[in-house]
Amino acid sequence: MPGPHTGALYAAELEVERAGWYELTSLVRSLTADECLVPGFYREPDWTVRDLVAHIGTWLAEAEVQFERMSAGTYEGHEIDVDTLNELFLAAMAGHPWEVAWVQANAGRSRMIVEWSLMERPTEEAAWWIRKSGGDHYAEHLGRLRAWSAELIERRFPEPGAEVATLPTPQTRQ
Predict the structure, then answer these.
(1) CATH assignment of the domain containing 147
(2) Which of 1, 4, 133, 145 is the 20 to 30 A CA-CA neighbour of 44?
(3) 141 vs 51, 56, 163, CA distance in Å?
(4) Helix, strand, coil: what percent of the chain each, to 5?
(5) Burial of 32 (0-12, 13-18, 19+ CB in 10 A)
(6) Residue 42 forms beta bridges with which residues?
(7) What is the pLDDT of residues 99-131, one digit of tens each?
(8) What contacts 158, CB < 8 A, 6 or more positions away?
(9) At residue 143, what are phi and psi to the nearest 5 degrees?
(10) Domain carrying residue 79
(11) Looking at the DSSP assignment, which residues form a beta bridge with residue 47?
């Protein structure tokens, strides 16, 4: 829901964000809820698709907060430790059901876009948050998500005689 300023200021960035989001959500929707809880998206630590969605969603929510601060004149800059925030965000979402991660990511994106659309002028700080939380951030993860979702879907149809892996049920995940 772009506002009056976004179209002129951030049209290209909005299009990159939208295209990335739609691809990300299409890949996620191609999986079952159980498949979204299978470890292996990343290793050390093990991530699931739920963890990825929670990760993306927390960064979208953080960007929304930072855009609000920019609009209110209380923004303090983005001198942050990204790795530490990643750990904090992952820990904050650990153990939440798939549905919570999914809803949180969608809500985070919706709120971020609303705040983004209210920005009256482009700034380097806004551009940094747009890249960190939006299209560029999605692009960091889309290659692996394409490969992982294809692998999970392929597991649905094992070759004859192949050992069939069982998926964990939601109750077996933290």
Answers:
(1) 1.20.120.450
(2) 133
(3) 12, 9, 29
(4) 65, 0, 30
(5) middle
(6) 47
(7) 999 999 999 999 999 998 888 887 889 988 988
(8) 164, 165
(9) -60, -45
(10) 6-152
(11) 42
